[in-house]
Amino acid sequence: MIEFQRxxxxxxxxxxxxxxxxxxxxxxxxxxxxxxxxxKSTAMRILAGLSRPTSGSATVLGRPYAGLERPGYEVxxxxxxSAQHPGRSGREVLTLGAMMLGLPRSRxxxxxELVGLTGKExxxxxxxxxxxxxxxxxxxxxxxxRPRALVLDEPANGLDPQGIxxxxxxxxxxxxxxxxxxxxxxxxxxxxxxxxxxVMIGRGRLLAQxxxxxxxxxRGLEQTFLELTAAADRSLA
Length: 237
Ligand SMILES: Nc1ncnc2c1ncn2[C@@H]1O[C@H](COP(=O)(O)OP(=O)(O)OP(=O)(O)O)[C@@H](O)[C@H]1O
What we know:
This protein has helices at about 40-45, 70-75, 90-100, 105-115, 120-125, 130-145, 160-175, 190-195, 210-215, 220-235; strands spanning about 1-10, 15-25, 30-35, 55-60, 75-80, 150-155, 180-185, 195-200, 205-210. It is α/β, with parallel strands linked by helices. The chain has one domain: Rossmann fold (3-Layer(aba) Sandwich), CATH 3.40.50.300. It has a 6-stranded mixed sheet, sandwiched between helices. The protein has a 3-stranded antiparallel sheet with strand order 2-1-4, covered by helices on one side. Helix 3 packs across helix 4 (about 105-115). The two termini are about 35 Å apart. Adenosine-5'-triphosphate binds near residues 38, 41 and 42. Adenosine-5'-triphosphate binds near residues 11, 16, 34, 41 and 42.
């Protein structure tokens, strides 16, 4: 389970997160929606131990990232698909990750297959990958240790329709096997199709949470999203 409790983050005069609380239960996909600058990446970076909260907490299985005993087995993260060194091959990236986790080389082949990268693609330098291929590699890297929680920031960016279909199936299978999946996206329809629950934020504040049907209120998620985010903009204007 992933939990954000009264999480706030301030960057000098910007309140990137303001008292945000929500839970990502084990065995579910939670879609994290918000317009540009809403605070999604900030919340995910804090959860991954890359940034400190001003107040509140973000925990995986009850512990902050720094307190996890075996982080690679507990939470997998994909925060920036383009963060890998362009000169390394996909296989090298995964092999380094597998070595850090003490996993056998065979796990690299399993993961390449899981994310749909061929042996030839795995041997190519990441600098020559399309964004969709980088997303697949990043998802594979996050899954190396078969973690119990998964945090993906905009993983659908750059994926083609087949790729999006594949990712939807993968996330569903992971959740069905007990994983807590948190997924941020701008693609409302995509999220609607895969998420069991949706959390909406705007201007650093929690705007709504519930199932897609509850939030869509019969008129569609997009309408609710547009109204709530516009109201958040007005209240802080
Ligand atoms: N390192 C930083 N220094 C100063 N301000 C920052 C920093 N990181 C984020 N911010 C600000 O915090 C706010 C939230 O940004 P964040 O990147 O978390 O939003 P987001 O919801 O992920 O946006 P997007 O959908 O565009 O990726 C924005 O106003 C952003 O400018």
